[in-house]
Design brief:
269 residues; alpha/beta; Metallo-beta-lactamase, Chain A; 7-stranded mixed beta sheet; 10 helices; 23% strand; globular
Length: 269
Amino acid sequence: MPSKIIFLGTAGDSFVLSKLQRTAAGIIIEHDETQIHINPGPNSLLRANLSGIDSRKTKVVIITDNTLLHAHDANAVIDAMTIGGFDRNGLLLAPKPALNGTRADPASIFPFYQASVEKVVQISDGNKVNYNNIQIIAVKIKNSDPDAIGLKIITPSFSLGYTSKTKYASLVRESFKGVEILILELPLFALKKSEDGLSLAEAERLISEVKPKVAVLTGFGIEILKQDILEITRNMNRRTNIQIIAANDGFSFDPTSYAVKLRQKRLSF
């Protein structure tokens, strides 16, 4: 299986989702024989099917926070990959609230589906999980939920960072230093201290400081989608001198195209 990243859904807030401007079905990463589904939100199975993805082949499901946009369809994806729990297989990575719930919110992942996978790992900042020559690292982000995480995914062919929904902070910059591909959620046009998520200016600052080979914008809020996205990315490209892409639902690309080299890069197992 050649490496591929597929953006099943690119909605970043409930206004975009409710207007059906974008879906929030998450991101698929395919590498060798491993299929990873990150943050399977609403309509994940439908969007996967429309993108030619067989959810039965998913081997790893990753949740970065216990929210509807990032976890709503996790049970459905696990149901598909395990045939309703009949074929117990695969790996589920999720922070504590998504597995155990909180006083305010129930867990996104039902106990039955936690028991349907081969292994469940409760992840928090600094955790490293190795699966089929892929290293998955949970990294600290700045979110009102202290258990919310970002991700770094390192393979022999490419390295990737995914911010999830974070505000800008120096710790976030340091979390993603060195990745070749940086995926950023961009829910805000202008900074709003009361809301989680990067503003346009913060996203550009983070890209400039991390210096990936390519940055992909996703998780768009309603105010961002009122703008000319192509013009925004052109201006950011010019100012940062880094290739920046605004994803649409169904957008895909080969991440090895942006690898520094098919390297002697070792995973630090």
